[in-house]
Amino acid sequence: xxxxxxxxxxxxxxxxxxxxxxxxxxxxxxxxxxxxxxxxxxxxxxxxxxxxxxxxxxxxxxxxxxxxxxxxxxxxxxxxxxxxxxxxxxxxxxxxxxxxxxxxxxxxxxxxxxxxxxxxxxxxxxxxxxxxxxxxxxxxxxxxxxxxxxxxxxxxxxxxxxxxxxxxxxxxxxxxxxxxxxxxxxxxxxxxxxxxxxxxxxxxxxxxxxxxxxxxxxxxxxxxxxxxxxxxxxxxxxxxxxxxxxxxxxxxxxxxxxxxxxxxxxxxxxxxxx
Length: 274
Description:
This protein is an alpha+beta fold. It has 6 helices and 8 strands; from the N terminus they run H-H-E-H-E-H-E-H-E-E-H-E-E-E. GO terms for molecular function: protein histidine kinase activity.
C-alpha cells in the first residue's frame, strides 16, 4: 500500500515537473534570442540582466530535472537489464565531463591509471552508474577546500575462496573536503537533506536530493553506497559492482587510492541507511 502511494506521488511529481520544464525551456529560448547581437542592439546593462536570467533559468531547469529523477524513483527499486560495460569507457566519459569542472574550480581529479582499467568490465546499467559516479564526484568538488583534490580509484574484490565468479569491483570516490560529522551522517541519504548554513563553505545549493537519488540508483544496480568521513579531513564514498570476465582479477593486487585520498579506518565507516 505504501509503495503504491509512493509511486502515485512520484507520478504526480514527474508530471508536474514535465509541464513546468517546458515553460522554463521556453524562457531560456526567448532569452537566447534576445541576446542575439545580430537581431538586437543591447546595452551592457540589458545584456547583464539577460545573462542573469539565463543563468537562473539554467539552475531552475537543473532543479526540475533532479525532481523528475526523484519522482521516477519513488516506490520499489526497479529491476534493470544489466549489461557488460568496459570500465575504461565509463571512466573516460566521466573524465571528459568533470575535468573541466574541476579546473574551473581550481581543483584536481586523480583518475585510475590506464593499466588498472584494461580488460576490466562491470555488469551494470551504464547510464545509471554514470549518474551515481558523477554525483559522488561533483559532491567531492563542491564541498572541497581551495586547491583540494578528488580521487577516483578502483579496488578489485575477489570472492572469499579466491574464485573469479562473483568477484566485484569497488568504485571509490575520495576527497580532501570539509568532511561529514557523525550528527549529519544518519540523514545523509535522506531526501531533501541539506548541509547546514553554519558549516564551512556555507549552505549547499539545490533541493538536497542528489545523494538520495544516487542511493536509489545504486540499489537498482544491486549495490549500495557506503561512506566514511572525518570532519576537516575529507570523505570517502564507494559502491561495489559485479565484475565481468574477472578471471584475472584474483591475480591483480587491489589498487590503492592515490595519495590525496585518505583511507579512513573501517570502524569509522558509516553505512547509509537503507
